[in-house]
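Dear colleague,

Thank you for sharing your sequence with our group. We've completed the structure prediction you requested, and as agreed, I am returning the results in plain text so they can be pasted directly into your records. Please verify that the sequence below matches your submission; if there's any discrepancy, let me know and we will rerun it promptly.
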Amino acid sequence: MNRVLLPAGLLLLVFVFLGNGLKSVVASTVFVSEADFASFLNISVEKTQLIVELLIGSAVMALAIAPFILNARTSRRIAVMAAVAAAAAYACLGAVMLGQPSLAQRELVVAAAFTVGGFSVSFFSPIAQIAINGVDNERRRVLLTTLWTSAQPIAFLFTPQLVKYVAPEIGLANYFLVFAMFPLAYLVLAVTVLKPPAAAAVRQDSTGARLSPPAVGLLLACILSFEVWTASNTLAGLTSAVSMALMLAFFGIVAWSVLYLRRQPATGPLLPRHAALLLACLFILEIPTTGFYDTTFLVRHLCSSTLIDDRASLGAFAQIAAVFLAGAAYVRWPRALPYLIGAGLVATLLGVAGYAYYPKVATDENFFYLTKIATGAGVGAVTTVVVAIVMASGRNNPLVALLPALVIMFGTEFGLEILEIVFQLAKLAGRDEAGAYGAVFAAQIVAAVLAFVPFVGAIGVRTPVPAQA
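Please find the predicted structure tokens below.
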């Protein structure tokens, strides 16, 4: 009997799924409950975007730090600390929502809970990758990687139904109190699945490159300065003096980082060239596929909530199906992987290109559905194959193996922020709302096309074909 189906294997499956799914449950809950949080904090619905930025920003910082502190020896201890912190944060949020304290206290608790909770829960994802890399069998690793990749779209598919039907019955406060139990369940699984430090076998790639402490500091400084700049854009406006100064600071730090790295002696590539190019492809692909502006366009144009919900569900179903089909193809037909990535990129481009026609087909529901299905399927296929290839390439180097989670999350945030800047610039240029959305849709098409550039470079690199297990 396949060991992955035995009780210990089942625990690992659940551990991996929760690892990449819980952070998506929180984000999806905030997306669906914007009106509730707006009422609780006495702010406009648009201002709830700040909560989303807190979540994503804290998640990106956690995922940026994770590769430098996580390995087989430390993952168990960090999992326990992160689980306790996340459970406490969301339990505190639920308790405060029940108590209805002063507005200042509510604002403080919401900001702290989502910052601490988002930061802590985001460690679960790379810890799950550590557990996956500890599996010796290639077929089982691909199965677990496929499950890890599918957790996010599955969470985005089912969480809105929970918030829509369960939260009104028990209240959003009790919803978060119940959710606080899931990090504790993850804690129990972590203690069971992950080996204690004394027993953990740490694989070290003696030839693999490592980032120096100054390089790590510059990387974190670049990400942090980007977070501060984009937060200022939301709070103070794109053209405010503060935002302009922070923008210059961000680009200055990036330029200094590039110059510093170019002056350092060559130490060999951090990861194989084909894997680096595929990660670049995945990062660029996250930019046009955030799902924010195409959805808000439909909301602004008074499309029914049923249409919007059905469209999101069909897109999630398509992404989940593509994830599992791509995972099966990775094992069965390894030589077809370049064609699978290429097909995924084409499907994504077709779906994103369709967004530009939304103003012209305002009553064609089927077109809205088809574009979302194409985008979801394309992203699902590309993400699954790229993550599996990169994790296999860096199995002996924890820094490399943990990069996919950071690339996916930061790519999503980068896309949201860049598209917001495009939208604001279009408005400043005198375009009406429809014209501003048109500029965003055009930028999304450009990004989807640019994703082909690193992919073409990757397929030109001679690499070993993944062995069939």
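Summary note from our side: The CA atoms of residues 295 and 308 lie 7 Å apart.

Kind regards,
the structure core
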